[in-house]
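User: My instructor asked us to take a sequence, write out its structure as tokens, and then describe one feature of it. I'm not sure where to start. Here is the sequence I was given:
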Amino acid sequence: MKNYSGEKFTVAAVQASSILYDRDKCLDKAISLIEEAAKQGAQLVVLPESYIPGYPYHIWLGTPMWYHGLFKEWFLNSVEIPSKTVDALCESANKNNIHVVIGISERDGNTCYNTILFIDNRGEIFGKHRKLMPTHVERVHWGMGDGSYLNVYDTDLGRMSGLVCWEHTMDLVRHSLIAQRAQLHCAVWVGFSSITGWETLFDMSTELSARYHAHVGECFVLNSQSTVDKENVEKLSQTDYQGQWIKPGGGWTAIIAPGGAILAGPLKGEEGILYAEVDLNMIADMAHWHDATGHYSRPDVASLLLNREPYKVTRNMNSISNKAGSAIGFGASQQSSDQLLKMMQQLEGKFGDSEEWTRKLAELKQEALQKKK
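Assistant: Let's start with the prediction itself. The structure tokens for your sequence are:
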């Protein structure tokens, strides 16, 4: 864990439009933004949600039948890991000696995920986060992440975490990262205030979420949102109906200190890069008053159960007895009848209230009786 050594460094939060849905052009623009941030002395730069190949705004603007062509374009331009696109991002981070955190649409097989990619200043991927629950119609395009992606990473700059957009409304998810003592939180968002009717509400939602996370988590928050440029609107507005619902602009980008004070921004309605100096010693200013995962958390009263197991489409189905044995540390099929009976007693204490385990215990008892014969 990075000590509070008093070392100060510069961070950057990008607000920019993607070039929908062109992976190569988005990559080129991302690299130019990374280079610009590095020239200004930034050691960490954060780029918006699904920046490559762009957020699928079309899902909000019409029926699936209307936007099938746009879906296909977006899907085929999503980013595989590993790939030449990821290699180029890593090379840019290494060349410019800067940590890069960027939102991508990750394609894994025939499923896409709303993913944050974490790259260090040596050009090495040190983590990724898949959005746990795509919001509303996002579920048509993106699959769900799992608890294995709720991580805080040790870096040369400090302990780093990240969440996507409205994951910041999932308080238990936020707390799982706060409990791992994140110091630098990278919040990537879509600039949804470009959608008619959401101009004020979405900016308010963003500001509340970002500043509250910085306050409760006693961490720095780099909040990065995208914008929608004129070319994006023209691409998406294929009928008069779509043109009524999206317009150029959007975005609420800021860099926020522990406690919730804004260090840079907010930047709204235009492209740009915000910079701020980070001093990890500022975390102590909040620790004096409040510690969300220490003496102020009271886990004896209320605690969080976190499932860190990765989601798998296929799983090996071993015998019932092997499954039961693994729950207490040994394989039942290799045990004597006395050992099986002892194991069943342990299982009854551990899983006795479960209907499924009651059934499995009955099968184990039958196996034990067979061994005694």
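For the description part of your assignment, you could build on this observation: The chain has two domains: 8-287, 320-372. Try explaining in your own words what that tells you about the chain.
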